[in-house]
Design a protein that fits this description.
heterodimer; A: 4 strands; B: 96 residues; mainly alpha
Amino acid sequence: MTFRVGYLTPRETRIWELRRHNLSQSDIGRELGISRQAIHKAYQIIDKKVEQAFMEAAETNNLLIKTVNLVEGVMNAHSPAYDIPVIVSLSKSNGLKIWYLYEGNCKSCHLQSSCRNILESEARERGIQLNATEQLMQPTQLAIEIFGRYQDD
Amino acid sequence: MINNACPFAPGEVKPRSIPVNSNHEGLLNRITNGKLIVLVLSLVGLTLVYSHSYSDLNWEGSSVLFNDWYIVKMSLYTYLTSLISFFIREHRRNQR
C-alpha cells in the first residue's frame, strides 16, 4: 500500500480496475467471489484513498484542483507557478503521473520512448484502442489524446 | 488550444531516464519474485545434495547426476513443484 498507487491494496486496485471497465458491483463481486455489499463498501474506501492521493499530489506540486474523476483516476488542475493547466493521472501500471499542458517538443527529448511506453500502458489499462494515427503521434500529443477525454473544458 | 502534454514542467531539467513499469502484465514479475527464486534454489540444492550423497550408487563409481537425464528430470520436477506452489499461493492471496 503506497502513495504511488493511491494507497490502494492489491485487492482494492483490482476492484478499482474492474469498476473502470464499467462492471457492475454484482459482476465484480461474482468475479472476485465476494458479496455486492463488500464491493459497495470497498468503493467507499477506494474513493477516499484515491481522493487523498490526488489531494496530496496537488499539495506537493502546488496545484489548484479543478475537477477529480475518482473512477477514471484523473484530476484536472492548474499550476499557478507555470500558469498552465495540469492533468494528474493515477493508474496501476504507472502510478501517479503529472502531465503539464503546454507546447512541448518530443523531437529534441531523449525521454521520448519512455514517455511513449508510459502512455501506451495507460491507454491499454484504460481500455483505449490507439489507432494507426495515434500510434505515430509524438508522446506529447498522444498524452492529450488519452487524457484530454477526461477534461471538462 | 493546447494539444500537448508533457510529464515535465516548462523549463524543468529532465533526468537521464524515467522509470517505466514494463511488466504491467505482471507475468515476469510473478515468476521471478524473491521468495520463489529462494524456493527453487533450495529445492535444486537439496536435490543435488541428496543425489550426491546417495552412497550405494556412488560406491560403484557411477555418476548419478549424469545418468538417465537425472539432472534434467529433477530440475523439471523441481520447477513444476515450485510453479504449483506458486499458483496455490496466488490463489490463496486472491481469496483473501
